[in-house]
Amino acid sequence: MYEHSRSLYRELKPFLLPDRPGSATMRRSLLDACEGTLVQLASDKPPAAPVKQLFGAVRGLVPAQHQMGVFTIIDRRVTGLAAELERRREIEGGSLLRCAATNRRGQPCGREPLRGSRYCPSHQPQASAAA
Predict the structure, then answer these.
(1) What gap in Å lies between CA 85 and CA 93, rounded to an integer?
(2) Could you read off the pLDDT of 15-58 as tens digits, one per residue?
(3) 102 lies in which domain range?
(4) DSSP letter at 123?
């Protein structure tokens, strides 16, 4: 999710209100909103309206004349990612934010898997050995 949230942040950042005192806070707020929404989207219980949620969080950071463009970007990116995540859930089954391995106690690993893999960095050697 890191790559997707950072990519969305970089695409939306030019639309922020012009530089002024506190602009670093605005950039941080935009990044937090992008990360929070996309992590929720990939969680076991995604939000009902992620596009609305993210746009509602960032619309105060963007001038009125750019809000339609920002909404269009958010809608395109979040809707596409939601469809991809749904497809991956159907193929892989289960949560996308947890490693598929179990720890020594038999508990599911709580770490985030590497991109393109079902396993976190710690369990990646096990995945290679099992294949």
Answers:
(1) 11
(2) 988 767 767 888 899 999 999 888 888 776 777 888 999 999 99
(3) 98-131
(4) T
